[in-house]
Design goal:
single chain, alpha/beta, Rossmann fold, Glucose Oxidase, domain 1, 2 domains, 7-stranded mixed sheet, 8 helices, globular, carboxypeptidase activity, hydrolase, Muramoyltetrapeptide carboxypeptidase
């Protein structure tokens, strides 16, 4: 059974750090205001404001900052500032023994999928949700779902069903994140474990032929074989070539799992759009989809500390 880090309460401290792209103290202000409105104390990591070309400090800076927050017993959650690229450069230097000794919530999406996938293998839940950078453009619902993920875990979603959905019911642990990152981790110690799991995927700014290549790579690696279900979030700003690929994003994904009997839900409101609703990765969910609606409900099953 997965370990559930303690839910937050008013007065707790949450750290904002860079694991990838740089993020300034000025950019952090909306996120600070949001956290303070929830009664939390914000600690800005030493990487906030650092500038190493695209990255929020050197690899050493980002490792040291993350490890420092893991080691600090007063920090109850670590909120990644933004994505982009860079988390994979530091994943093997992070002291995850600190996290297993004292679990705390790790929050983010996109490039932070590196952390989600790696930490899932340690048996600890994480939160796929908006980052500090996302706050100014995030919908109120997206922010509200992050609040519930952090403070009480009460999350349930009902959305109108897409006509391409594969209908049915499933139960299992939710895993996943950004498809490009999951694809890039295959063959590494951080590669995703999808056996008997429900897989969530989303992506941004990819060519359709590349999406097809990623899905076939997952298929050939057995990632899609033993799923209990699949949830497809935003496939945002997809591109085609001058000579069309011939399939849209949904059709490409559906084709890769056409021989599977598990349910598939498209258009779940989570990913790189403004309505990036929070998901507790590693938590058991109930997934139901029919021609009218799709329902995703999180169960309160995690082993609390």
């Amino acid at each position: 059974m997965m370990i559930k880090p303690p839910y937050l309460k008013k007065g707790d401290k949450i750290a904002i750090v860079c694991t990838a792209r740089k993020f300034s103290k000025e950019e952090a202000q909306p996120a600070i205001q949001l956290m303070e409105s929830w009664g939390l104390q914000v600690v800005l990591g030493e990487t906030i404001g650092k500038d190493n070309f695209q990255l929020g400090g050197t690899d050493e800076d980002r490792v040291n900052d993350f490890n420092k927050q893991l080691a600090n017993p007063e920090i109850k959650a670590i909120w990644c500032a933004r994505g982009g690229y860079g988390t994979v450069r530091i994943i093997d230097q992070i002291d995850f023994g600190l996290l297993t000794k004292s679990p705390k919530w790790i929050i983010g999406f996109s490039d932070v999928t590196v952390l989600h996938s790696h930490i899932h293998k340690l048996g600890i839940e994480t939160i796929h949700g908006i980052m500090a950078f996302s706050v100014p453009k995030a919908t109120e619902k997206a922010k509200d779902t992050l609040y519930h993920a952090l403070f009480n875990g009460r999350l349930e979603y009902k959305i109108k069903s897409c006509e391409l959905n594969k209908y049915g019911n499933a139960q299992g642990e939710l895993v996943g994140g950004n498809l490009s990152i999951l694809y890039s981790l295959l063959g590494s110690p951080s590669a995703i474990d999808t056996n008997d799991k429900i897989l969530f995927i989303e992506d941004l700014d990819e060519y359709l032929y590349h999406l097809d290549r990623m899905m076939y790579n997952l298929k050939r690696n057995g990632v899609l074989d033993n799923l209990r279900g699949m949830i497809v979030g935003g496939m945002t700003d997809m591109h085609d070539n001058e000579i069309p690929f011939g399939q849209k994003a949904h059709e490409i994904i559906l084709s890769a799992v056409s021989d599977k009997i598990y349910p598939v839900v498209f258009d779940f409101p989570s990913g790189h759009g403004a309505e990036n609703n929070a998901l507790i990765l590693g938590r058991k969910i109930v997934l139901e989809t029919n021609p009218q609606e799709s329902v995703l409900k999180f169960e309160e099953h995690g082993r609390a500390l």
